[in-house]
Design goal:
heterotrimer, A alpha/beta, B alpha+beta, C alpha/beta, B: alpha+beta, 39% strand, C: alpha/beta, D-Maltodextrin-Binding Protein, domain 2, 5-stranded mixed β-sheet, 22% strand
């Protein structure tokens, strides 16, 4: 028997409430592509990626048509390149980024992540070379994304790396200033990075992962927003319950698509990341969900509590829906990619300090935030240090994707285009953190790291 | 394989008959029908079995779409597993 | 018995090899940005030899030039201080062209801003920043026939200095121009070449006549030619891209180079390079006619 109600509900979610599969990401291990000759290594990388992901886009498009569900992005993530390139006797790692870029374009995906290094306890030779090459690599390639993990609960915070990240981000901005500093939108600094995140720019294929996996990221802030509109004025218990049920439905959709994609491609099913990821489109905003809960503008008092409820309910609802939940799985708060966040930042209500508080209770960190172009590198490093501390002490993933908008100041806007959206430039504290950052060394792992 | 045919458009005489005839032409077996008219907008949903048709889902889908375009109807074909999955634990 | 001898030989070899690695292994003489800031001094290696680029002014008793100005700007940015404060922190050290790198390796200077060409060979021994100057190539005719165009270079012998890859730059430029020309590049010893350039400036007859090496002309960075040379009819500004100059630090000084790159990037974003180049008359093709 048809349940017309269910069907109409689902169709409306897709058509009107922006329910979609945000990304189908194929994770590919490049561990076997290492070679002492860098040219040969790059050739192996190109061949392996194009071979494995040959049918990714086609298959995703078929599934899209058959199920009537939009699959917005098809992406690839690879083993952190610092591990693969380390065996090569070369100082020039940019060629590896170029090989990734070419392979991804051949496959027709829109981003490839994994130009990364994991340095929470210090640098290896390969890590050093990769980090030094980041500004050039991200400016000469189009669709390569990179990340660096500078801290973990077990290892503490590598403050030398944090300092260098401040400089690196500034240089990436300067080298891509003619493209709206968009190089910085392709680079994330992590604490407690996860190995199976399907979202960019922080996606990479961790060392514990198998040869090849399919990870799916769903998205549905619009659906949650719509669901909440029918429970206006009700108590928080009802709100939490409503969000849970909606999250269940959203995640189930991701599960079906993930299983189908992995079967058709003959690749192991990895995880469904049940994150609520917004887009700049109207009606697809996490900030509006928080406002729907009763806040005049996102960023006022109560925002952190609202986000905590949302994040938790999304997780609880999604867990039942999928056999394997992973990635970041929570609520995203990327400022430039969320129509409500953009409005709140422009209105001056949503400030950096509040965003930092919000990162304590949601799944990622300070994401897609534009700061004035003259922000000192040490200040950027200090912002990263703050986020790392939150992640390390609370045993969660945090990240910083910050864009120094060269030539712009508070009140201006930066245009990135497409899913990356528009970012209003928000203020940073002008008092200096330079002496703090210049100390260097490591902040030791907190007591929470001793779990045995 | 079970699929869902959704027909949306302005109410006209003969929609149901027309669509059913088209599906019979394509050798698609109709398992269940439900329809409603809301403010001059006609919505019909049919659970069908396309394994009886010799053709694959893509072909059936585009033929139905063609038929619908010619008559001002929005006809869509989707697999049903998604609806079961999303609404049952 | 054989096995014992084999094992013994293997052990000796391993010990010898590990000594080899220890002695010719990479010693880390990289410079840390924090150390520089703590020491409150920045030692910059310079070669005062070219007017406009870097020279000692007898009257004011100061070093002046494009490279000197860049050194001051970088000091101000690294320490976040004013120009007057930078004067106290900046220390200039004169280095010799042949053994510039030793000054970095032996920690006698923190940076070298002295026409260090940014090529892969140099990149192996030092850490290089992004370029701060890209001069163009200039040509000086040595024979009666004055070469004043690319076409006129066809079939000629071009003298270039040893140690730089000016010859490949010339050939690339000709190839990209699409003209059907061939040139023959002759490498001249550095000392002889430099002496000749100096003689051009001062109009004193040089001790060696490079035409004896079969050169019809000389090609090098137009920076080495003063206005005096550029004004003469022997000179032809190729406006071809020469080799970029970069700031050098000890190999491995990643953060220091990153900091310098930020400073250079900000200067470029504010068109400060343009302004300085015009001030010191270093813009290519800027020939002055009195």
């Amino acid at each position: 028997m048809i349940n017309i109600g269910n069907i109409i509900e689902t169709i409306q979610m897709i058509d009107r409430q922006h329910l979609d599969i945000r990304t189908v990401t194929m994770g590919i291990s490049l561990r076997d592509c290492a070679h002492s000759d860098a040219e040969k290594s790059c050739a192996r990388i190109y061949d392996k990626i194009t071979r494995k992901a040959e049918n990714l886009v086609k298959t995703a498009e078929c599934i899209e048509r058959e199920y009537g569900i939009p699959i917005v992005n098809k992406r690839i993530s690879v083993t952190p390149i610092s591990l693969v390139a380390e065996a090569s006797e070369t100082d020039d790692y940019v060629r590896f980024a170029t090989a990734m870029d070419k392979a991804a374009k051949t496959c027709g995906v829109d981003f490839i992540g994994g130009y990364s290094a994991l340095v929470q306890k210090g640098y290896t030779v390969g890590d050093r070379k990769l980090i030094a090459s980041l500004p050039e690599a991200l400016s000469v390639t189009d669709i390569v994304c990179g990340c660096v993990n500078v801290a973990s609960t077990r290892a503490g915070i590598d403050m030398d790396a944090v300092a260098e990240m401040g400089y690196t981000i500034k240089n990436i901005a300067l080298l891509s200033k003619d493209k709206g500093c968009s190089g910085c939108a392709k680079f994330v600094v992590f604490a407690n990075a996860v190995e199976d995140n399907p979202f960019m720019a922080g996606a990479f294929h961790g060392v514990g992962e198998p040869e090849c996996v399919i990870n799916v990221g769903v998205s549905g802030p619009g659906v949650v927003y719509h669901a909440l509109q029918s429970v206006k004025g009700e108590s928080f218990d009802v709100v939490a319950d409503t969000i849970k049920k909606t999250a269940f439905q959203i995640t189930r959709m991701g599960q079906i698509v993930a299983k189908e994609a992995s079967e058709r491609l003959g690749v192991q099913f990895g995880i469904v990341d049940l994150s609520l990821a917004p887009t700049p489109a109207v009606g697809d905003s996490v900030a509006r969900i928080l406002e729907e809960m009763g806040l005049e503008i996102c960023g006022t008092h109560g925002t952190t509590a609202a986000l905590a409820l949302l994040n938790d309910a999304v997780k609880k609802g999604g867990i039942m829906a999928s056999s394997h939940v992973g990635g970041l799985s929570g609520a995203f708060i990327p400022v430039s990619e969320d129509e409500g966040m953009i409005a709140a930042a422009k209105a001056g209500v949503l400030a950096l300090d509040k965003l930092e508080a919000m990162t304590c209770v949601c799944s990622v960190g300070l994401d897609m935030i534009a700061v004035p172009g003259d922000t000192p590198a040490e200040t950027i490093a200090a912002i990263i240090a703050d986020e790392a501390a939150i992640g390390v002490v609370n045993n969660k993933t945090t990240a910083v994707r910050i864009i120094p908008a060269i030539g712009k100041k508070v009140g201006d806007t930066v245009e990135f285009g497409g899913l990356l959206g528009t970012a209003p430039v928000i203020a940073v504290h002008p008092q200096s953190s330079a002496e703090f950052i210049h100390r260097g060394g490591r902040i030791p792992a907190p007591l929470q790291s001793l779990r045995n | 394989m079970k699929a869902l045919v959704t027909v949306i458009g302005h109410d006209q005489i003969g929609i149901i008959g027309g669509v059913c005839t088209k599906l019979a032409e394509l050798d698609v077996n109709i398992l269940d029908i439900s329809q409603t008219v809301m403010q001059d907008c006609f919505t019909m949903m049919m659970i069908v079995d396309i394994s009886t048709s010799g053709k694959d889902m893509e072909t059936v889908s585009s033929l139905l779409k063609q038929y619908g375009d010619g008559r001002g109807l929005n006809i869509r074909l989707q697999r049903t597993d998604i609806f079961d999955a999303m609404h049952t634990v | 018995m054989k096995k014992k001898i084999l094992a013994f030989i293997l052990i000796i070899l391993t010990v010898l090899l590990s000594f080899c690695f220890l002695s010719c292994g990479k010693t880390d003489n990289s410079k840390s940005l924090s150390d520089i800031i703590k020491s409150d001094k920045l030692r910059v290696g310079i070669i005062p030899s070219l007017p406009g680029l870097c020279e000692y002014n007898e009257n004011s008793q100061k070093y002046e030039g494009y490279e000197i100005d860049i050194a001051f700007i970088i000091t101000q940015k690294i320490f976040g201080c004013t120009y007057d404060e930078a004067k106290k922190k900046l220390v200039f050290v004169i280095v010799e062209p042949e053994n510039r790198v030793n000054y970095l390796e032996n920690d006698k200077v923190d940076l070298i801003i002295a026409g260090f060409t940014a090529n892969e060979l140099n990149g192996k021994r030092v850490a290089l920043s992004t370029p701060y100057l890209t001069p163009s190539l200039g040509l000086v005719s040595l024979t009666e026939e004055k070469i004043k165009s690319l076409n006129a270079m066809n079939g000629k012998n071009i003298g270039t200095v040893e140690g730089m890859n000016t010859d490949s730059l010339v050939k690339t430029f000709i190839r990209e121009s699409g003209l059907d020309i061939t040139v023959n590049c002759v490498k001249i010893d550095q000392e002889m070449f430099n002496a000749y350039i100096v003689s051009l400036r001062t109009d004193i007859t040089p001790s060696e006549n490079l035409t004896e090496f079969g050169c019809d002309c000389l090609v090098t960075d137009n920076l080495r030619f003063t206005d005096y040379v550029k004004n003469k009819e022997d000179y032809f500004d190729m406006t071809a891209v020469g080799q970029s100059y970069a700031i050098a630090a000890a190999k491995g000084s990643d953060m220091l180079i990153q900091r310098i790159n930020i400073a250079l990037g900000e200067m470029e974003a504010n068109d400060e390079f343009e302004g300085l180049q015009i001030m010191w008359n270093l813009k290519s093709g800027a020939i002055k006619y009195d």
